[in-house]
Write a sequence for this structure.
């Protein structure tokens, strides 16, 4: 027998798990990782796993992690796009697992992109 | 609770299971483990997605890629390409028959088949794992029961259902709120709610799909109904030929009991509700409400006269409220989103949506749910993708053995209870079968009548004897032995049966004959007077002949099993009609299109 509060907790936890399948309200943040041959060679998989770890730790509903193929910019891999609902896509380049907690905390949770990791910063340097 | 970045949804509905989806699930799990992805990718068995014709169906989220006709040997490719590297396997992506478009990009909603649909009863089908109550809960499951029990009076619940305008989806279209009210008003020490999952209409499978894809939706609604009318016990009557549905129901009832959503003192409110499954042997007449109740009681599944109506004296002589599976599947949403929301969908007298099982000569066979008022044309051409192989549409049958066939000229009829009846057919439970130029309408009427003759329980004479007489006449007509006056005899029998049969089965049995007589009378007349079947369908009435396109290649003569074809090499051949068995082998063989049916 579950109490109302317990049912509510199950709803919340399960929703963050099955959210991948629904975006009814259009409130999903998408993390897209370049996983073509060069991306994988450059270490995209550990980056992806770190994103999943962070999302799991923080029980973030409405965030999905997906992969994309070749975008033609091998030299900048691993690349990660973060798209907040209703916002422009922000592209991070040369992403390493150590950078992921900051991206999640500052950008995904608080809505402030980590400028120094973005493609803009890399191109200007 | 573990989070996975990708979910592989494999359809576990009856259609896809029979095309091997269970093997796919095993294979996916194995390959995902081999590639070290088991912590990232989860495989989920869902209910029917509705596009069974394209099965087995696999959908990969978050991108929503729709793979169709997936074979076990395709699994490796999906895992190593799509799941590992993020590259869709283009050649397996579903292609729309009508537009030849592939949906490589975003998701289901963009496919024509889904674009015109609105999913209320089917909302969770193909989205959640039906054997996991947590997933149902996450989709706002059991919130309506919570709301009803903790913040609504019984009268308020009934009022909401009444105001929503929901009508019974089992065929008759009786206002559901009224039915609840009658049962509520009956005073008794014990009342029952029951669910009709007998689904005997040939070609219909919406109720099966709901039970397979979202069993908790029906359970939750029955508990709400129990609260509203004051019943503590419910029965689901489901045909034994639906093993997957039965199993999912059993699992779901067990989980709901474990969570305290069924049983005694539900959610601590003092409301008790117990739910039991009863298996039916699958006779069509057992779907009729009085017969169904006798069958639950363990007696013969035969109808009895009403009144007394079940709301007064039903199961075990106690007030009983019976609704269809799809009717129930709408309830939780009505309670949650309100009657105003629900009644804003549909037409003046038919609210909400209706699920149809599209079948016959149509590109996208499957399950579709559209708002009431959608035209037949939209359902058949936009959602269904029209008739395959460029054949010409002839008619659409709705309402199963109790319904009728509507011609091309009525395709702009908005689908709802009253419009379909006005057009000469009926809604029925939601079978929708499309016929093209190759279908003979006399033979279609004969098919439904044959079904009725087989399924009549035999209790009353008009149905038992009358339908058999009608069938004999139709059999004669399709064999070329029709006589002047046959049509009038059919009409006379039909009228008598309709007005004197005891139960709905007999009362509606003549409908397929009457509606085809109304719209396709010329086909009957051609059979009777000219001994000709305009659709070239009726074997006894057609002849194979060789035209002057014949090049004398002898291929047909060699393939004919009856030795009916003669002719010299390079000369036009001829078929001896006395020897011809009408097997059609020669026509298939001829590369020059020289053989035709007349
Ligand atoms: C011969 C016959 C067969 C029927 N078969 C079914 C059936 O398979 N499923 C169903 O829900 N209703 C069937 N009905 C209608 C039921 O008698 C009843 O009206 C219905 O279950 C009530 O539920 P509803 O108001 O939610 O539609 C049948 C009726 C007749 C006369
Ligand atoms: S109408 Fe037919 S099925 Fe119904 S009671 Fe009479 S014989 Fe039986
Ligand atoms: S197969 Fe066609 S072309 Fe050849 S002999 Fe027969 S009818 Fe003539
Ligand atoms: S229809 Fe069959 S039996 Fe008749 S002529 Fe052709 S092959 Fe021979
Ligand atoms: S292979 Fe790396 S961007 Fe194309
Ligand atoms: S059973 Fe799989 S789509 Fe219908």
């Amino acid at each position: 027998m579950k109490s109302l509060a317990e049912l509510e907790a199950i709803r919340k936890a399960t929703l963050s798990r099955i959210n991948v399948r629904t975006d009814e309200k259009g409130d999903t943040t998408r993390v897209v990782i370049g996983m073509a041959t060069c991306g994988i060679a450059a270490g995209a998989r550990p980056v992806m796993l770190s994103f999943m770890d962070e999302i799991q730790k923080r029980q973030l509903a409405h965030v999905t992690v997906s992969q994309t193929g070749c975008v033609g910019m091998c030299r900048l891999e691993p690349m990660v796009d973060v798209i907040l609902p209703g916002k422009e896509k922000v592209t991070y380049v040369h992403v390493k697992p150590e950078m992921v907690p900051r991206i999640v905390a500052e950008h995904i949770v608080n809505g402030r992109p980590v400028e120094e990791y973005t493609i803009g910063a890399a191109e200007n340097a | 609770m573990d989070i996975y970045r990708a979910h592989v949804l494999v359809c576990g509905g009856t259609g896809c299971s029979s095309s091997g989806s269970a093997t796919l699930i095993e294979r996916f799990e194995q390959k995902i483990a081999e590639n070290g992805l088991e912590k990232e990718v989860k495989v989920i068995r869902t209910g029917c997605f509705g596009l069974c014709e394209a099965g087995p169906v696999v959908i990969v989220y978050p991108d929503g890629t729709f793979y169709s006709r997936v074979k076990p040997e395709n699994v490796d490719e999906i895992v190593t390409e799509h799941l590992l590297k993020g590259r869709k396997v283009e050649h397996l992506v579903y292609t729309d028959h009508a537009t030849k478009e592939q949906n490589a990009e975003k998701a289901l909603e963009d496919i024509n088949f889904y674009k015109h649909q609105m999913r209320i009863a089917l909302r969770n089908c193909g989205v959640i794992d039906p054997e996991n109550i947590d997933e149902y809960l996450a989709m706002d499951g059991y919130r309506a029961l919570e709301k009803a029990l903790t913040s609504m009076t019984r009268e308020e619940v009934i009022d909401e259902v009444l105001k929503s305008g929901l009508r019974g989806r089992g065929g008759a279209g009786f206002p559901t709120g009224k039915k609840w009210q009658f049962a509520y008003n009956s005073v008794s020490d014990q009342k029952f709610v029951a669910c009709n999952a007998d689904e005997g209409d040939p070609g219909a499978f919406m109720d099966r799909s709901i039970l397979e894809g979202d069993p908790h939706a029906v359970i939750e609604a029955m508990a709400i109904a129990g609260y509203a009318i004051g019943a503590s016990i419910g029965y689901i009557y489901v045909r034994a030929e639906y093993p997957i549905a039965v199993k999912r129901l059993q699992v779901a009832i067990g989980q709901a009991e474990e969570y305290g959503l069924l049983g005694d003192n539900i959610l601590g409110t003092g409301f008790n509700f117990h739910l039991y499954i009863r298996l039916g042997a699958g006779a069509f007449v057992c779907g009729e409400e009085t017969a169904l109740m006798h069958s639950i009681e363990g007696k013969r599944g035969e109808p009895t006269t009403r009144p007394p109506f079940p709301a007064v004296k039903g199961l075990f002589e106690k007030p009983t409220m019976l609704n269809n599976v799809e009717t129930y599947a709408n309830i939780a949403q009505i309670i949650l989103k309100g009657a105003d929301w629900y009644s804003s969908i549909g037409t003046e007298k038919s609210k909400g949506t209706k699920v149809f099982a599209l079948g016959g000569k149509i590109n996208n066979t499957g399950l579709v749910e559209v708002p009431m008022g959608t035209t037949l044309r939209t359902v058949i051409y936009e959602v269904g993708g029209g008739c395959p192989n460029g054949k010409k549409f002839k008619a659409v049958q709705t309402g199963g053995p109790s319904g009728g066939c509507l011609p091309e000229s009525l395709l702009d009829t908005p689908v709802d209870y009253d419009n379909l009846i006005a057009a000469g057919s009926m809604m029925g439970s939601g079978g929708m079968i499309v016929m093209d130029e190759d279908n003979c309408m006399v033979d279609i009427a004969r098919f439904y009548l044959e079904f009725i003759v087989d399924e009549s329980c035999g209790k009353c004479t008009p149905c038992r004897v009358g339908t058999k007489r009608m069938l004999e006449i139709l059999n004669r007509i399709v064999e070329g032995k029709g006589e002047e006056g046959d049509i009038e005899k059919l009409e006379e029998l039909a009228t008598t049966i309709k007005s004197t049969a005891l139960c709905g089965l007999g009362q509606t049995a003549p409908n397929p004959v009457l509606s085809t007589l109304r719209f396709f009378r010329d086909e009957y007349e051609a059979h009777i007077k000219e001994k000709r079947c305009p659709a070239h369908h009726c074997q006894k009435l057609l002849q194979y002949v060789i035209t002057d396109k014949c090049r004398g290649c002898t291929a047909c003569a060699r393939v004919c099993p009856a030795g009916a074809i003669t002719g010299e090499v390079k000369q036009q051949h001829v078929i001896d009609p006395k020897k011809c068995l009408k097997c059609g082998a020669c026509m298939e063989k001829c590369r020059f299109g020289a053989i035709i049916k007349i």
